[in-house]
Design a protein that fits this description.
mainly alpha; 2 helices
Length: 75
């Protein structure tokens, strides 16, 4: 193996003389506010809440339509 003399590469010269910009090219985004820790509800609590809402909806529907669980209750 012989000695390989250094060559002046144009790309190396361009890389060597480049300057870092003072400000970043992309503006920094302000940090977001941390969210509050929310208590996770169990499956049974969610199921109970859903059943309660369904019951409330059925009560409102029966009040509006005048019908109960069975259609001939009020006849």
């Amino acid at each position: 193996m012989g000695y390989i003399p250094l060559l002046r590469d144009e790309q190396f010269l361009l890389y060597a003389v480049r300057q870092e910009p003072d400000a970043p090219l992309i503006a920094r985004v302000a940090s977001l506010q941390r969210s509050q820790a929310v208590k996770k509800r169990s499956h049974f609590e969610r199921q109970y809440e859903n059943m309660r809402l369904k019951k409330l909806i059925l009560e409102c529907e029966s009040e509006i339509t005048g019908k109960g669980l069975h259609y001939d209750e009020r006849i």
